[in-house]
Amino acid sequence: MELISNIWNHPKTSAAGLLIAIVTIAGVLSQQGITLGTAGNGTVLSLATAIATALLGLLAKDPETNSSTSSSSSNVAKLGVWALIALLLPVPFLSGCSGSSVAQDIVNWTPALQSAVTTVDATAALFSPADAPIFAAATIGFDAASNLLVSQAKAYLANPSASVLTQLQTQIVTFQQQVNIALLQAAKISNPQSQQSALAAINGVATIVNSIFALVQSISGKVAVAQMAAQSTVKLAAVRPYLDERQAIASVASHYKEPAAEARIQIEQAEAAAVQAGF
């Protein structure tokens, strides 16, 4: 009876706890390969996770109308903590991955990467004589970097050894730095329309490179991650204002055939892990 009374007296907190339980259990089931069937282009499990996360967000943003009492403020604070916990919970795409599965995922990203780089090359021809040199200089190394990354990803898939992983770690950091620098350079384009086109094209590459980076980081040891962070001179904080979140969410959701809400969580977790590691 006391359990029922607590649920009745604290409905929002109880609901938040239930939603977090759903997200947690869904993550564990997904890691075991259990999907509960398909739902559109995704799975029933991913849909349930996304709905639970979205409802939790609504609960956290819906404080009591009578906020004058201390209990009301406490409930709102608790909901904020629940929301934070939900964001920190492991989700299937960034946890529990083996080296071979990550290697396959990286290889699966490579066609989209090559397409994004091709888009960058095509975009360069659309700029005015004043803006074209800036964009060309900013993206000049993308073709070579993407080709090398694709080759190393395939090599790691064929032979997931420590030595090949080291090469992959070095290349993904190098490419990410090239992309970060390109974003900063594109932001210097004075023509607003040209700047928008340049950032959009570079963001197409940035989303994929950052996704591959998160995958590589997930299978790298602490020492290796520290070395990768030391090689990263242009940090995420510097380019964050120029990253297109909507474009990134759409790209990740499409790649993993998952709801946008789930893709958003995946991206947020990857960024949080990168910042915490010193990137």
SSE topology string: HHEEHHHHHHHHHHH
Number-wise, the strands total 2
Helix content: over 70%
User: Globular, elongated, flat, extended or rod-shaped: what is the shape?
Assistant: globular
If helices are DSSP runs of H or I spanning 4 or more residues, what is the number of helices?
A: 13
Q: Give the percentage of residues in beta strands.
A: under 5%
- The low-confidence runs, each spanning 5 or more residues with pLDDT under 50, are 62-74, 80-96
What value does the Rg take, in angstroms? 21 Å
N-to-C CA distance: 51 Å
Q: Report strand order across the widest sheet.
A: 1-2
Structural class: mainly alpha
How would you sum up this structure in a few lines?
With 279 residues, the protein is mostly helical.
Account of the 3D structure:
With 279 residues, the protein is an all-alpha fold. It folds into two domains: 87 residues; 179 residues. The protein is 76% helix and 1% strand. A two-stranded antiparallel ribbon has the order 1-2. Strand 1 and strand 2 form a beta hairpin. Helix 8 packs parallel to helix 10. The radius of gyration is 21 Å and the shape is globular. About 11% of the residues have low confidence.
Please outline the helices and strands.
Layout: H1 2-9, H2 11-31, E1 38-39, E2 42-43, H3 44-60, H4 70-88, H5 99-124, H6 132-139, H7 142-158, H8 162-186, H9 192-218, H10 222-231, H11 236-239, H12 245-256, H13 260-277
Antiparallel strand pairs: 1-2
Output the keywords.
mainly alpha; two-stranded antiparallel ribbon; 279 residues
